[in-house]
Amino acid sequence: MLLHCYYGLSLILAVLTSFTLTVSIFSTHWEGSSLNLEYLKENLPADLILTEYASGKLVLLLPENSSQVDPTDWPYNPAILAETHSGLWSTCLALTDDEFGDLRSNLSWIGRKCISNENRKYPAKDKFSITRWRRVMNLSISCCITSLIIISAALLLGIVGVLYKQAACILVDSVLFQLAVFFSVFGMAIHFTNRLERRQDLGSPCGHPSLCSAFSYWTGWSQYLGLGGVALCAATAACVYGLSRVIITMINTIPDFK
Q1: Between the CA of residue 250 and those of 47, 134, 160, 212, 243, what are the distances in Å?
Q2: Of 33, 60, 214, 243, which has the highest C-beta tally within 10 A?
Q3: How far apart are alpha carbons 142 and 184 in whole angstroms?
Q4: Angle at Cα 234 formed by Cα 218 and Cα 223, nearest 5°?
Q5: pLDDT tens-digit map of 108-164
Q6: Higher pLDDT, 241 or 209
Q7: Phi-psi region of 7 (alpha: psi -120 to 50; beta: other; left: phi over 0)
């Protein structure tokens, strides 16, 4: 009975770990920005006209004496202030598909809803300088992907160990889940420590310094889901270890155990 409880619990924890970490790592909701319209209107320079789109999630700022719009994609257009959310690979406008469709009908030059963080052009002091968060972003991504690969290998090894009741395989399986915890925590820690520098670069450009305080930045649900996945992964490692001990005990005490 105890053995079957360990089987069931280990399976449930392993599946939940795989699901939560996969969704977290590949989502675009690690962090985001919100726009305070009240602050924006109160501090709007007298020579600018503000036009709202998508219920105020995106605004267009134009000089009062000019109706000419710079037809540049939103990530590089200082006349646009927009709410965004970003992940490890891309940054997106915080709009639904319907809202973005309506926006495209009004501003056809707005560009794509999501843009790759790797291919995006960032402000730099010179052409050779690269901000610190960009230098370590690939390390964070590599750690997260490595943890998923380790978890995949652990699932396969665990299936073999359970089918053939191999305590050694299941014990190694526990070690693999512990390694996945290490790489996941390391990747998330790298991402977290560079958040202040990264958020302004990944968000909508702010061409008017007096209005930049209208943005507020927040941690997205993906990071919390990832932390939950790490906790589940640690619990899986402990449960699988317990399973290996139970199997070893039964092999030593029950001669016909197979």
Answers
A1: 81, 52, 18, 65, 11
A2: 243
A3: 10
A4: 10
A5: 899 999 998 887 776 655 555 667 777 788 899 999 999 999 999 999 999 998 888
A6: 241
A7: alpha
